[in-house]
Model the fold of this input.
Amino acid sequence: MFEKEKFSSLLKTKIFGKNIFCFDTIDSTNTQAKMLAEKGTEEGTIVIADEQTHGRGRFSRSWISAKEKNLTFSIILRPKISLERIGLLPFIFATAIAKTLRKYYTVEAETKWPNDILLNGKKLCGMLLESSFHNENVDYIIVGIGLNVNQETFTDELAQTATSLFPETQKEWDREKLLSQILLQIENEYFFFCENETNDILSQWKSYSTMFGKEISMSQNGDVLNGIAIDVSPDGELLVNVNNKLVKFNSADVTLIRH
Done:
């Protein structure tokens, strides 16, 4: 089971994770975090669970995670930023996680638009952001993160596309230590972003990505298009060459095509 006291003793953040709700089993950390946020719970509060019965990913998919093996958690944010900049938040969190894995563990994690982390071509981490607004101001944002850590096996359906740190590195990971390091990196990146209108978050994110210049498949509203990933716009949109036309995507399910 995730050890709250051990985690707190390792934490070096200013606010992220200082207020933490730990659950053995819960429906969804995002659902619980939203309930807390609605009650006014402060920014930086973390909800973590060893098991989710209804974990969610993007596009209403289920997030399946072995009990007591991985990190499934949600963070409450209350950023004082313009609505136009909210779309850049996934890049901050993805960059922070990839940077942590590379910096402390020499794990060559890669970023994939818009908010996935890959390792050796397979999905290691995913995110789900859910927002609430009041009079065109951000009330709160919930960032739900699922990071596969010590899971040894996956279902036949997921085995081709998902992985975890354990089989890739052949070692058992300390979840409390890893989360404390990730939160410190996330907090640093997040506050720098909120306090500075100009920053290099997209260039950092792109430096961890290998998808550009490669053929990708994009699924959006039932339609599937193939093209070459070119770049990311200043607003975080994916720029794709589709039949020699530059097309912008602000939401799509992206798959790298491997020949």
Observations:
- Helices lie at 4-10, 29-38, 89-105, 156-159, 165-169, 175-195, 201-207.
